[in-house]
Write a structure and sequence with these properties.
By secondary structure, the protein is of the alpha+beta class. It contains 3 helices and 11 strands. The N terminus is likely disordered.
């Protein structure tokens, strides 16, 4: 298993392999990925782990996504995000070239990334903050999952921790209507 935590600005990982009588500890500056370093060390020492690590990383590798904007998506969308404690205005601008701009509350404009549209479900992520006390406790990005149906986009905006693996995901309800 792995464990992260410790001093601010210092990332730590402790991986234990009891059947192999092995413990791996990695301390690194905050910008590094000690979990990946620990996995690479384990792979060098444990051949059977190396094989499974290759498979897991191949599965997790980003796949190229193609996003073709559809005519019903192009335009301005506005509405609200309902969190557990407030209503926050949300606006999307879907451009004909496929760029999607997002405004969440009073935050600056963000660009939606990793966009996909599958069976009417628009998804993507952007740099922003869900403005609730619980979400603000840890750094996060916002993941959208919205269903296009009858001139509306409805679904969720999730505050997703920036850690890998994801430490938490807090959902809020989003309801947008296309503006004339």
């Amino acid at each position: 298993f792995g464990h992260g935590g410790g001093m601010p600005g210092v990332a730590t990982t402790l991986n234990l392999y009891p059947t192999e009588n092995l413990a791996i500890v990695v301390l690194a500056n905050g910008g590094n990925r000690p979990d990946f370093i620990a996995q690479d060390i384990a792979a060098a020492l444990l051949p059977q782990y190396a094989d499974s690590l290759k498979v897991r990383r191949a599965r997790a590798a980003p796949r190229p996504r193609t996003f073709a904007v559809t005519p019903e998506l192009i335009g301005n969308w506005s509405g609200t995000m309902r969190t557990w404690d407030s209503m926050v205005p949300v606006r999307l601008l879907v451009k004909p070239d496929g760029d999607i701009h997002v405004w969440l509350g009073q935050q600056p404009r963000a660009i939606l990334n990793e966009i996909s549209l599958i069976d009417g479900r628009l998804s993507g992520r952007f740099g922003g903050e869900i403005p609730t006390r619980d979400a603000k406790r840890w750094p996060h990005f916002v993941m959208l999952g919205l269903l296009l149906q009858d001139g509306t986009l409805k679904g969720q905006a999730n505050a997703m921790s920036v850690t890998d693996p994801i430490m938490y995901s807090l959902a809020s309800y989003v309801d947008l209507k296309k503006q004339p």
